[in-house]
Amino acid sequence: NQTGCGQPKISGRIVGGGDAPRSRWPWQVSIQLNGHHHCGGSLISSQWVVSAAHCFDFSSLVSSYRVNLGEYQLSYPSPCRVSSLVSQIIIHPHYNGTRSAADIALMQLTDPVQYIDDIRPICWPGSSDSFPDNLTCWVTGSSTLIPPPLPVSLPPPKTLQEVQVQLIDTAACNALYNIDPDPKIGRDPVKPNMICAGDAKGHKDSCKGDSGGPLTCDSNGTWFLLGIVSWGDGCGQPNRPGVYIRTVPYGEWIWGFWQSEA
To answer: What are the Peptidase S1 domain coordinates in residue numbering (predicted)?
Structure first.
């Protein structure tokens, strides 16, 4: 199920942040709730999308959600866009609320999608794939721009945004969160199945509306989904990097559903 993943049409060196070029991140999806962008997600096979568990309101019907693929500007539907119905949403059984581990969910599309330049899956890393703790990766989403001091809503045409972030290991990230800790979050809030990305100064971060979207890392020209946007303390604040769910520990859970598809 991993054949041909992680290979966007546009490759080569990426510099800076801001508007993403079209086709650069073809696995990025927009999860729509009642016709409005609600969360991000990643296409991992022709019929499965992965996102964050906290994106799904248990009072909302599955039929209230759609997945838009090949979306580049939320204000102007792309001619390549595919809007798919969802047949089921599967929340990880260990998920138990905000800032919990296992903040991961699967969405099964009603019908498999056809791959084109703007719609392609990302690779899921295996336990043998190694990524150094300080690796520079990318987070993408369609919600906000984060100039200091406050995040602002992305203005029309709401072009997909990309920002370069550095991975921060769990211990180093907890050390940052323990600087003047927020009583609501407590000390050492970053658990082993989470990973942080950003920098101590802030500014480079994901934000509300990017939830569930991809933290992607390049390994020898192939892109892997290393994390899922989960939570943070504000957006782009100093000593508060974004926190992502590590994907590797959930590979067996994911593969169980992939195998049933095959």
So the answer is: 14-254
